[in-house]
Design a protein that fits this description.
heterodimer; A: alpha+beta; DNA polymerase, domain 1; 2 domains; 5-stranded mixed sheet; 33% helix; B: 264 residues; alpha+beta; Uridine Diphospho-n-acetylenolpyruvylglucosamine Reductase, domain 2; Uridine Diphospho-n-acetylenolpyruvylglucosamine Reductase, domain 3; Enolase-like, domain 1; 3 domains; 12 helices
């Protein structure tokens, strides 16, 4: 089995994996980072979004071996000590989640948006969420959360 | 997902050599189609050869009248490129409308063109702009490249290295996406090129992307939206599925062509 080494949430990790191991499987089953979810498993729903070298990707459609040497950030890597990331805090404040299943992917996707566009309009946010599906909220409070989170991230 | 051997290629020659040496090898570009296909067990390659480490396949070059895009350049990179936005803004906008942001961060132009999905966006740009597909062996005109649904002129083990787009006088792309998958039910790319007007239609044809000759002729007589809107589009050879009938697709070709011309 090939060995794959990468940095996950700032920590160097390495493991022998089958080539077919998906990044999301590696994160959840090897590293026990179960905050990243598998929703559809067909790259539609976005519950599995993580950052690879700073860009949001669907970890159900990336092989672990493809991220050799990469810097991976999951939802678990956002908070510092016990303080939530401003985007996480914005979701909490704005009731941006109900069941919470889609939330890790939503938050990771939202942070990538703000990295590309520091002051997104409501339209920008709605278009960016193309690849993140929520079956509870109707998206309205998610959009509000991301607007607030974007402002908070500018500090 | 069946298992496979994973190999990383360091150069184009290394990649084609590894695929040639495998029982049933395949190239892995961004993986946004290939990996779901393997997961569904619709493909079962013995070896997957990853192109991600080949630096020469990534990048966008401005050669004055031509924009050359390396095969491993992501949709997000094309959408965000200053060169593409200034030289062929319709191409940047098309790339910005593929899939979703996460797919655009991984998916590549070479992968999309090689796959020739009948509802993909890039084939419409290649055919609509009269692009040239560059491979490790030769250069293929887009007119000769797309040979049928998921079929191309690529030989076994032949690798796309770049796509060369001639800069048009003007161009635009309009698509009517499926509301769930966001793939084009119909997408129309129109361009005024050195060789005259070109109109390419994706999403609609049973054999994949095709040129709409009657509309090209109408635009040759005068570049205006009403000219293409008035062209009668035959239902023959158009897709009929749960998303849309052939009659609806024929209608949408007219509407999308009209909107595209109006947008130039």
């Amino acid at each position: 089995m090939p060995t794959v080494s990468m940095t996950v949430n700032g920590k160097a990790v390495s493991a022998d994996v089958e080539p077919r191991t998906l990044l999301v499987q590696y994160l959840r089953e090897n590293l026990r980072l179960t905050g990243t979810h598998v929703g559809c498993d067909t790259s539609q729903c976005g519950a599995c979004v993580v950052h690879v070298n700073g860009k949001s990707v669907k970890s159900c459609t990336v092989l672990a071996v493809q991220t050799e040497g990469a810097d991976v950030t999951t939802i678990e890597g956002l908070a510092t000590n016990s303080e939530l990331h401003p985007m996480q805090e914005a979701f909490r404040e704005n009731h941006g989640l109900q069941c919470g299943f889609c939330t890790p992917g939503m938050v990771m996707s939202a942070i990538d948006l703000v990295q590309n566009n520091t002051n997104p309009s409501e339209q920008d946010i709605r278009e960016w969420l193309e690849g993140n599906i929520c079956r509870c909220t109707g998206y309205h409070n998610i959009v509000k959360s991301i607007e607030a989170g974007a402002k908070a991230m500018q500090g | 997902m069946y298992n496979f051997n994973y190999q990383k290629a360091s150069s184009v020659a290394d990649a084609t050599g590894k695929v040639a040496a495998a029982d049933d090898g395949t190239f892995l570009a961004g993986g946004q189609t290939l990996l779901p296909t393997i997961k569904q067990r619709l493909a079962n390659p013995s070896d997957v050869v990853d192109l991600a480490g080949i630096g020469e396949l990534v990048g966008i070059a401005d050669d004055g009248n031509t924009v050359t895009i390396g095969a491993m350049t992501t949709h997000a990179a094309v959408a965000g490129s200053d060169v593409v936005k200034s030289k062929i803004p319709a191409l940047a906008a098309l790339a910005d409308g593929i899939g979703d942001p996460q797919v655009r961060n991984r998916g590549t132009i070479g992968g999309s063109v090689a796959n020739n999905d009948p509802a993909a966006d890039y084939p419409a740009a290649c055919l609509g702009l009269g692009a040239t597909i560059v491979t490790d062996k030769r250069e293929i005109a887009a007119d000769d490249f797309f040979t049928g649904m998921f079929e191309t002129a690529l030989a076994e083990g032949e690798l796309i290295t770049a796509v060369k787009f001639p800069v048009p006088q003007k161009a635009a792309y309009q698509k009517f996406p499926n509301p769930a998958s966001r793939y084009a039910i119909v997408g129309v790319f129109v361009a005024q090129t050195g060789g005259g007007p070109r109109v390419a239609v994706t999403g609609a044809g049973q054999d994949g992307v095709f040129r709409q000759a009657d509309m090209e002729q109408a635009l040759g007589n005068g570049w205006n939206a009403d000219a293409v809107g008035g062209v009668s589009v035959s239902q023959s050879g158009l897709n009929e599925d749960i998303h849309a009938g052939a009659d609806y697709r024929a209608h949408l070709i007219g509407v999308m062509a009209k909107r595209a011309v109006a947008a130039t």
